[in-house]
Amino acid sequence: MTPKILVVDDERSVTDLLAYNLRKSGYEPLVAADGREALRLARQASPDLILLDLMLPGMDGLDVCRELRKIGDIPIIMITALGEETDRVVGLELGADDYVTKPFSVRELMARIKSVLRRAQAEKSDPAEGQKPDPRLRGPGGLLLDPDSRTVSVAGSALDLTRLEFDLLQLFLINAGRVLTRERLLEQAWGYDYVGDTRAVDSAMKRLRAKLRGASPEADSLEAVRGVGYRLK
What we know:
Layout: E1 4-8, H1 12-24, E2 28-32, H2 35-45, E3 49-53, H3 61-71, E4 76-81, H4 85-93, E5 98-102, H5 106-124, E6 137-139, E7 143-146, E8 151-154, E9 157-159, H6 163-174, E10 179-181, H7 182-190, H8 199-215, E11 222-225, E12 229-232
Parallel strand pairs: 1-2, 1-3, 3-4, 4-5
Antiparallel strand pairs: 6-7, 7-8, 8-9, 10-12, 11-12
């Protein structure tokens, strides 16, 4: 089936541009000019991904993002202006999967859409049939990650992680003791090569570590390696 992409932006020129390029790339675009229309379409049309502008009339993008997370785990890519760093960080903390800044490269945005959809599809895929070794990964503090069911628990209690947080934690458990650079994390967790602003990595890591510590102080064995990236001790 053709993936449906909901574009939420009050600028007609932006929605026209995105709708054209989405069709060209094989997607079915849906368009909403404000937050309430976006929530209505999200509930009725069940889009596969949402492109969400933060600067919306009435109900702003952050409130929309918060409400969308109550509806379900629809992948969200935020669209922000260059100077909206605080809103961008808050959006990531609310569970947005990625962001782009205006003016954005259509080619880069399409690559990010493809990457986020690929991660979402991998989460829904059934595990391979047949006998195989226990694929679960273990960490300190009773941390247990099951890649087949895509669940995480700490000392037997379920831990609610976003798709991106799960992928990051899995990377660190697989590469325990190794330093993973921000660029490598972008490539393997986000799914693309990106030169420039890597603050999305730091925001996601901050959110992941807070959740681990909230479950058990011992479960957070992640540490920042100054000027390089992160490591699971």
